[in-house]
Every structure is written in structure tokens, then in C-alpha cells.
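Quick log. Single chain, no ligands specified.
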Amino acid sequence: MFSNLSGNQIESIILQFAYYFLLFILYSFGGWIVECIWTYLTKRKLENRGFLFGPICPIYGVGSLVCVLSIGPLRLSWPLEFLLMIIICNLIEYITSVVLEKIYNVRWWDYTTVSVLHLNGRISLETSIGFGVGGVFILHLVQPFFSHLLGPLSPILLLVISGLLLILFAADILLSLIAISNIKGVFKGGTVDLTSEIKRFSINYYKKASRLSRRIARTAMHHVGNAQKEAKKRVKNNL
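-> predicted structure:
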């Protein structure tokens, strides 16, 4: 794929990927903060929201990047930007909800009982308005700020930061998928938000695994100790 590209072109592509990946992480982190604030206001408690263990919600990163790259260059009026944001973000949220439910037989979120108007519990009027307002806010305030923030970074620093975050992100995805693959049959879904329950189940999965590892290690050390005692006895008996 890169055979017809010059070295400078390949370097430019890599730097662009690093830049947009950092934007993805920033928007995903921002989405996680929004989710936590919303949960605290509605439930009066803090929750680690999202699919992954880390403080990011990738669906926000994807939605924000798609809107920035597709709507931003069009220079449309604010009302039209607002409508397009709603359409794009609702489409991403609906598809994500369907895909996750098909894979794991459970819903991460459901707006059936908490929304005035919703579509199959997957998208709602309230969140649609939030996406529209948030999208316009992102285009005109957040994205310029992020561009100003990342602009001064040297190519080397950009690559190092994005590379480290990519490794952490990939590890988080792997660990989350391993834990979440065990939820089938545990939750029944329905008209209830199960994000916090799924996250708690995933965390407990590794806590239990950790306890098992410690138990195995203690058992192994016990056997080693016994073997050492037996060896000392044999040495003494042979003297």
C-alpha cells in the first residue's frame, strides 16, 4: 500500500494518524467526564462509565472525530451543524448499541424508562439534543483549543505520546474484552442501564483472578518449603 509513496509522504501519514489518535483519546476522555458528571447529577454517585477500564469512552471519541472531519470543513450554519450532529451521533450510538447487544446478548444502556421520547431504547430525544449542542460546542470551541494544544508538539514528542497511549489503549481493549466475554448469560438486559453493573463484573473478574493467582502462588511456595524440609532431612540422614 505504501510502495508508491515517498518517505516524506509516509512520515506525513504516520504523523497525521498520531495527531488524530491523540484527538480521539482527548475526546474519549472528555466523553467519560461528561458521562460521570451526568451520572452523578442523576444518581448522586460516581461511576466509571464506558466499555473500557480506563477513563475513556471511545464512542465519544469516534463521534467527535467523525463530526470534526466531516462537518467542520463544510462551514455550515449553526442550525444545520446542529441537525447533522444529531443525525451522525444518533447513528453511531444506535449502531453501537445493536452491535454490542448482538455480540454479548446484553444492553449497555437503555432509555426506555428514563426518556420522554426514544427509539427502541437505544437513542433518545434528550441525548440527541445534547449531541447537537455538544457537537456545535466541539466544532467552535473545543476543537480549536485542542488544535492549539497539540500544535506546538514536535513530531518526535507527538509520536512518543501517541505511541504510549496506543499501547495502553490496546492493552485496555484486550483486558476489557477478556473480562466482558464472560458476561453472556450473567445479565439479562431489558429496559435498564447496565453499564455500571457490567463494569463492576469486569473488575471483579480480575479481582477473583488475582486472588486465585495469589492462592496458587501460596500453594506453590508451601510445596517448595516442604520439599526443602524433606531434602534437609535426607541430607541429615545420610550424614
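The first strand starts at residue 118 and ends at 119.
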